[in-house]
């Protein structure tokens, strides 16, 4: 993790890298031709910054991607790139949790095979795919609060032959087909049509405009209409039957977005795509993507320093932090949802009201209680329990993260509200360790969606997370960040890099 803090007004800056080593980074020499009193005042405020700084608020995938694209697409610039993070770690909603010595994803968990930016980031940073099998649950049970209305087959024993595993997959496909019929293919076609349009955001620069508002960005790709109707409306028009929507589709949206099929169509389509095969994650945690991008961008990272206010000072913005420091920035990028952070803007900015959907992730080392599910044995409980949209069901999903033996497992429970100990005592027969995390994970989607501006003030105050009202995922954050970086470059005299690390030509090759 990069940790860089200003240590004084010198011509060099000492910085710490991931290994705890220090290096010297050359900065522009300072020429002192000012009155001594002014010089003393300047030296007494070592956290004041030059007015040509570019500042990013938030170190999650949106903020780190913005930093990366800005430095990757431009020639070396004299501006200092600062990234502010109010927590003590980078990654935003990408984080891990440790249970019994094992590490699991606590936030954004999976990456789709056609998430082309994130794929390239991982390759560029030398990050390996996780190989521990988390997220590979294929024993699905759909619970209605009283019984399992549908279940796939239990997985074959470890070490089973290729033929047995293929036969198992075939039988599960037949079970799904028997229950849901042609709606399975229509559901897949709906998700694939969305992905086909989304892939347009990887086109080369000559055929892909820079967008200054989300509406035009979505209309250009043909995705805007999906944000104006509910997922349920879209799927009915696509020919899906009511059983598929109320069971299978609902399970997927409750797991991925903690919401029902009344979410907007684009968010729903992204959710359906997130249930496909081939999903993967970064070994050691997806947060490493953000950390690596910030390091590659040579960003000055201010950990545990949140921004309290952003004021327009004419040719630059004054950012005041919760540590009492001020930073002068010609460009300011807000890369965190403004819905639950208290940043004061002067003059005020106007964005549509938006609620964030909180997902409570509860990690439990212990054993599920089969009687709670109307079963006689733990071995009868599916490894992924999805739930229907019914008022008396207290959780969205339960999944097995690791099975040490028949009496010792680690589970992840998603719910819309905190699960208290009395309820957990009913769901689990034993609990050795319990960890609770409350995430303002994504917007509460509704149709028609209304979008905040990308440019908040008509000048150089940008908001990456405005795109999140269309859909929220690691890749959508990266796509929105690339557009903001290109927008900044198009509006400032920044020279383009001759051979960026992430070129549009390479992106085209990935999609083939």
Automatic annotation (TrEMBL):
Residues 169-492 form the Prenylcysteine lyase domain. Its cofactor is FAD. Gene3D superfamilies: FAD/NAD(P)-binding domain (3.50.50.60). Residues 1-22 are annotated as: Disordered. InterPro entries: FAD/NAD-bd_sf, Prenylcys_lyase, Prenylcysteine_Oxase1. Keywords: FAD, Flavoprotein, Glycoprotein, Oxidoreductase, Signal. GO terms for molecular function: prenylcysteine oxidase activity. SUPFAM superfamilies: FAD/NAD(P)-binding domain (SSF51905). Signal peptide: none annotated. PANTHER family: FARNESYLCYSTEINE LYASE (PTHR15944), PRENYLCYSTEINE LYASE DOMAIN-CONTAINING PROTEIN (PTHR15944:SF0). Belongs to the prenylcysteine oxidase family. This is Prenylcysteine lyase domain-containing protein. It comes from Lolium multiflorum.
